[in-house]
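User: Hello! I'm new to structural biology and keep hearing that structure can be predicted from sequence alone. Could you demonstrate with Pre-mRNA-splicing factor SYF2? Please show me the input and the output so I can see what each looks like.

Assistant: Of course. The first part below is the input, the amino acid sequence of Pre-mRNA-splicing factor SYF2. The second part is the output, the predicted structure written as tokens.
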Amino acid sequence: MASVDVSETLSTTNKDMTFAEKQAERMKRLRSLHSARNEARSHNHQEVVAEEARNKLPPNYEAKRRQAEWLLEDQKKREEAAKEGKEYDRVKLLNISATEAERLERKKKKKNPDQGFSTYEQATVRQYNRLVKNMPAADMEQYEKQKQKYGDAFYGGPNVIIHGMHEDRKDAIDKMVDDLEGQIAKRAKYSRRRIHNDDADIDYINERNAKFNKKLERFYGEHTSEIKQNLERGTAI
């Protein structure tokens, strides 16, 4: 079977075409290249805009986005389980390995909800949330009665004089006093001032060394009391 040379076939075809047909073919190819160039330029512009938008995002944006998607998916599955009358936490544990379930349980136990002091603002928010949580349930019936009784003065606008209109109930005052006394007692428990004992032995050279010695005494005092007494009496072997 004889092979056909492609270049010879194209040259033969071009020779058979008229000048107008050749010109039309060239214009067609030019328009095709022009369209491809415009399309590439549009794609490049879109990529530049998208990259600039990504650079303006915070560094942890992707992690937060994945976390948000996971939370939405988890909430959706939880709602579906509730509709079917199933306990979602048990269903979720059935789909993970025992090792992973044990790791999640250890992480849950290790997690400390009280992160300690970070800022005064956060400390104020935590204190406010604790106080609100300990408040009794609102008496909506009494709330509506007071709202109808005082009218516009109930909310205390800028042009309303409310002084002397409200009368505090005795049980409300007692609750406030009990709550304040509880806060004072709790605060005194954790921030009591250590009284200096002048009769105590001076076994330290500075404040830091005194704290260290107190720690040693707290953990090892019962085990080393006899040795310490022998050293003081001079009867240690």
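User: So the tokens describe the shape?

Assistant: Right, they're a compact way of writing down the 3D structure. Reading them back into a model, for example: Residues 120-189 form one domain.
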